[in-house]
Amino acid sequence: MPWNDQSGGPPRSGGQGPWGSGPRKPWGQQQPPRSPQPPTGPDLDDLFRQWRERFFGGGGSGGGGPRSGRRGLQWPLIAGLLVIGWLATGVYTVDEGEQAVITRVGKFNRSTGPGIHFHLPAPIEGRQVVNVTGQRTAEIGFESPRANVANDNPEESLMITGDRNIAEIHFRVVYNVKDVRAFVFNVRDPDEAVRQVAESAMREVIGRRQLEPIITTERGAVEEGVEALMQATLDEYQSGVQVLQIQLLRAAAPSAVIEAFNDVVNAGQDAETLINNANRDTSRIVNEAQGYRERVVREATGEAERFIAVHSEYRQAPQVTRDRLYLETMERVYQRGNLVILDQRGGAVPYLPLDGMIRRNAPATAQPGAGQ
User: Fold this and answer.
1) Of the residues 191, 224, 253, the one at which a domain ends
2) Which residues are CB-neighbours of 72 under 8 A, at least 6 positions away?
3) Domain residues for 301?
4) Which DSSP category does 24 fall into?
């Protein structure tokens, strides 16, 4: 070797190089000693460079070699990841009480119930999830109250009744979805369609009735009529909507004429009260007259039967019956009188209590004098 001694002797001690003793550089400069450094962590630059070379190919200037082959293998992997992510967009879930409508190229394909499902990703297939069991509401004639004060909407609430009066109507429609396909495809805006049909049906029902019954006794009939008319119209439109309930919240005269209308209503109520009182008095008088008639008839019937019975007894024993009638008559006539009647045939001696009669009559004769 060129570094060995030319004399063939043993190598020099101390690890001398070919230019002399000591660890020297080839040019004769002595290398300074290095202190030991503690081990450090991985170099981030090297890690980034390795990942960049692995997924996007090396960035060196040297061409060819294994780096060019590695760069060509990354594009299929990226494309596969994109395809998997695109397919994953077709996975969806449907909650309880909901249904999903699946369209293929814009046309209805199928509907699915609750659970986890898959459809072809967009733009091949799409989905629309609809709550079919939850109750939906539409408020007509007013807006939702804030601070317990309802905001009136005159364009919807003012309606003309059958007797050409103006009524202020506030009502609420409660409905849900009974056919999800019809609900999604047959009507552009189902909720707005329900509002329009509800207002139209209410105006038709109100236009057939008078104002006073609407706000007093026929509120339930109005609700039933509007519900039936709404359901028939929505079924004709094939909207897929089921009307559950109509709630008539307010039915009254407009605020501008409410006082005058209340006066008219109060007058009508007063008239009904007077009529009811008169009918009550009439019924009482008629009942009393009927009772008096029945009593008189019964008494007359009893007297007639009694006379017939007495006549029958008189025909059998005239003298006895005559005496009995005489005695009963005298008893009835003198039953309250202070009299004593003696028969001459009895043989009794009359006794006149003159002292008692005088004492009894004395205060009666003294009263006129006392008054003077």
Assistant:
1) 253
2) 57
3) 258-335
4) B
